[in-house]
Every structure is written in C-alpha cells, then in structure tokens.
Design goal:
Distance between the termini: 110 Å
CATH superfamily of the largest domain: Immunoglobulins
Number of strands: 16
Radius of gyration: 32 Å
Structural class: alpha+beta
Shape: elongated
Strand content: 35-45%
CATH class of the largest domain: Mainly Beta
Oligomer: single chain
CATH topology of the largest domain: Immunoglobulin-like
Helix content: 10-25%
Number of helices: 2
CATH architecture of the largest domain: Sandwich
Length: about 230
C-alpha cells in the first residue's frame, strides 16, 4: 500500500513539472510568433474558374471586396519543382464585363491534359491571402486527334448533303469539287448544304468543329479532311 502511494505521488509531481515546462515553452513560442504583430491576410479569392482551351486555359477570378487589393498570382506546374506563374493586376483592363469577373488567359504550350491552377491575392501592403486552387483541362494535338468527323450523306436529289452531327458539334467546314475541277471556297455548314454545279465523281471535303463544353474558350477542329464522293 505504501509503495502504491509513493508511486502515485511521484507520478503527480512529474506531471506537474512537465505541465509547467510545457506551458513555459508554449508561452515562449507564442511570444516569438506574435512579437511582430498579428498575422494579417489579404482578402481571399471568392471564385476561381478554369476554362479549357487549345494549349491554353482561361481563368476567371472573382476576389472578395477589399479596398486594399492589388493583384493575384496564378501558379501552375507546382509539382514539377519548376512552377510557372503570372501576376494579374486588379485593373479595369483585366476585367471582363460579360463574365463579371477578372480574367486572364494562360499559355499552356507543352501541357496536355489535367492542370491545377493555384491562386492567391496580394494587397497593397504585400499581405497575401490564403491559397485556393482549381483544376482544369488543356486540349492538345493528342486529344484533337481523337475527334471524329460528322458523316455527310446525299439525300434523294443527289445534289444536297446532310450531316449526321455528334454531340458537341458546332458546324462543319465544307468545300466541294465543281465541274471545272476547282473546289469552292470553304463554308460553315450546320446540317444541310445544297451543291451547285457539283462534279459527278468529284469529292466533298469536310472537317468538323467541336465545342466540348459550353464554357470552353476554343473550338476544336478535326485535323484532317473527310472526303466523300459525289454521285
């Protein structure tokens, strides 16, 4: 019984000593942390949207109200150890009335696929906001190479073509061979085109133009022509 009493007493004393040391350390750390004043953050970015394009992206930035806001920094490729970044000043020239936000386009040459955009605000005093990020997608040659042509077909009169458009198709870029052997100027056709003075046995050349998402900043065009024989 006496042994148990001594054990409890020793543990209690040890706990009190440890607690005292811990409190002293915590106070010292806190004093070191706030000796230059409290941490001040700039107003944060309320909305960050990344819009897909061909070898580029568009970034829509909506900061919170902050009379001292100056600019934001956009950064990507952070995981590579050699990140790229750009500064977007909060000035009228960078404001898009249609988007009701600030806007910037970033060159993504050499990047294809998913990309992560990190962003933070900086105010007039150099204070930074908390970081936010948003993922996006960059279209490139490999992606465009997978796009399929909309298939044209001749209807009963043999002088009119209709396109069987897929989901995402905007229109088709079309020219055709006339009886003199020359091709017409390329025109945009959504569904139907009537041919004039078309050469029997000649060809209709077409490319198909896509808008994959409504928010995309670029349309994508099939890289090669589809050739369809004129009956």
């Amino acid at each position: 019984m006496l042994t148990m009493y001594r054990y409890i007493k020793q543990m209690t004393i040890s706990l009190l000593v440890f607690t005292g040391i811990s409190c002293d350390d915590a106070d010292e750390l806190l004093n070191q942390h706030i000796k230059d004043g409290p941490i001040i953050y700039a107003g944060k970015i309320a909305e960050l949207e990344v819009r897909s394009g061909y070898e580029k992206v568009g970034v829509r930035i909506l900061p919170v109200e902050d009379v001292n806001r100056a600019h934001c920094v956009l950064r990507w490729n952070a995981a590579s150890g050699n990140p790229d970044s750009v500064k977007v000043n909060y000035v009228p020239e960078n404001y898009d009335e249609d988007l009701d936000s600030y806007y910037a386009e970033l060159d993504m040459s050499g990047i294809e696929g998913n990309v992560l955009i990190e962003a933070w605000n900086v105010d007039a005093f150099g204070n930074r906001s908390l970081l936010t990020d948003q993922g996006g997608f960059v279209y490139g040659p490999n992606y465009v190479g997978t796009l399929l042509h909309a298939t044209p077909r001749f209807i009963s009169d043999g002088q009119t073509i209709e396109f069987d458009n897929r989901v995402g198709v905007v229109d088709n870029l079309v020219s055709y061979e006339q009886s003199n052997g020359q091709f017409t100027e390329e025109v945009r056709v959504v569904e139907r085109l009537e041919l004039h003075d078309a050469k029997p046995g000649g060809v209709v050349r077409s490319k198909t133009r896509y808008l994959i998402n409504e928010s995309d900043i670029d349309t994508l065009v099939t890289p090669s022509y589809l050739e369809t024989v004129i009956p």
